[in-house]
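Exam prep: given the inputs below (a chain plus pyridoxal-5'-phosphate), describe the expected output before reading on.
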Amino acid sequence: MSSEASRPVPRPGILEIDAYVPGRSKAPAGVKLHKLSSNESPLGASPAAIEAFRAIADKLELYPDGSSTALREAIAAMHGLNPANIVCGNGSDDLLELITKAYIGPGDEGIYTEFGFLVYKIAILAAGGVPVVAKETDCTASVDAILEKVTPRTKVVFLANPNNPTGTYLTSSDVKRLQAGLPPHVLLVLDAAYAEYVRRNDYASGIELVSETENVVMTRTFSKIHGLAALRIGWMYGPAHVVDAINRIRGPFNVSAAAIAAGTEAIRDRAFIEQAVAHNNEWLEIVTREIEALGLKVTPSVANFVLIHFPEEKGRTAGDADEFLVARGLVLRQVSSYGLPQCLRMTIGTEEANRAVIAALKDFLSGAGS
Ligand SMILES: *Cc1c(COP(=O)(O)O)cnc(C)c1O
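Solution:
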């Protein structure tokens, strides 16, 4: 017997994990809540997806299709892919964890960037791996900084592109340079959760790079543009050998029947997707411009949220602003856990919510009582 422990003890690394804290969703009693803390869609979900979800209520005794065939085929048709190279998951978090579990063992290193999505660190530690952080420049991932962190123990590099919570992105040529600089045994995971929102000619979600190489996978989600966060649907596109590994370890029914049905309709509803993109495009620009006009720095974002920087002066900090906004039912996201205590992240909301935040920040900065 190797252990003297008086009760079961988790594997090394597990207790180093700070559990992921989701965006808050409470406003004071009697105040209308605008939840802008989790990058959820202000437009809800496609009516066709909602109808498909309802229809499942009559068949709850049946196991779902364990291969999510209809969903994979609908995704493949939308993006011009081979459905055999797609795996669906219980949210893209599920896939990020499975990828980590498949490629990182005790002592192996996983790299992510300074302000990168926190799920990567959690997944690496949970697998017994060593999280390695690459510095960013101006809240943007740096290809050189990532490549400098590569060692013989490196197994996976995670890049959220665009990144949450910064909203910044790497161009497709930068991502290509990153892939080209990695040893062939290192898996590059491109987390493109916000790809649909990006309106830049020099951006690519990674589909091409996956097709052309053997060490890149791209993950996507139905939680953001499709407004289906409650259902937990994600997918990955990867080379056959990675797909094969993930299919061996995923839960046999890791996507629910309701998720398959609703997701299949959601991805076919192009008009709805375009509407969501147009709304975001319009309001991302207005929100950025108006908040900058108040004298606050906003990191340029290509996603459905903005990172707002506050002064470190007493009474005007991000924490003070958060308190002021919450009192008005405006719940943004504190991002201290990302090492950004001076910032709040605001999801682009409805017109009403966006205008309310702009007005409240104006009052906050001019010292009007809360
Ligand atoms: C929201 C988000 C996801 C999506 O996670 P789901 O599990 O699919 O809801 C993935 N990556 C990043 C960077 C995100 O911000």
